[in-house]
Amino acid sequence: MFRLAIGEPYDTSVTEWPEGSVYSYDSSGHWILIMYRQPTESERKSVQEGPVNFALYEQFPVVFLCHQFGRMGWHDCPYSWWRVPPEGRSLPDMTPGYHALVKTVLIDSSTGLVAALRVCTFSSEFTQRLHLSIRAQSQTYWTDQEHEEIIQSVYRMYSPEELALRAGIRCKGGD
Hints:
This protein is an alpha+beta fold. The protein is built from four helices and eight strands; from the N terminus they run E-E-H-E-E-E-E-E-H-H-H-E. It has helices at residues 41-49, 124-138, 144-157, 160-166; strands at residues 20-26, 29-36, 52-59, 62-69, 75-79, 101-108, 114-121, 169-172. It is globular.
């Protein structure tokens, strides 16, 4: 059984993580991992109890999940259903009115220890749009090179804040 706890390793086989942010959707649901070197108390509180904003920017076939926790700036995470290991791939629920849960973990990238945890929901409308995008990705295969070229093209044009402003849909965590 998978268990997460503050002060414990996120993954016992990894003690150092690259700094950044990663979004994933797989058979265990929606996850955001935020890796900061020695996160401050303000960053821990922002993840655990600050207001949360989400935005979805699409440059098909890549989906960028943008997020902002508390006083932290915007981050963006490119996502591809095809980059999930085959055994973990799952098509998301399209039930009308469904609010998907998203689990967020702040990891101290210098130690691999969990610094903060948060679970909240996307709005129903945001859930439907994100799930529809993931399902569309599953029907369109492309190479890793094509995927990376799209990501780099978007990054040359926009900062994470600009992606969030240009997003097709936004919501507050818990909506």
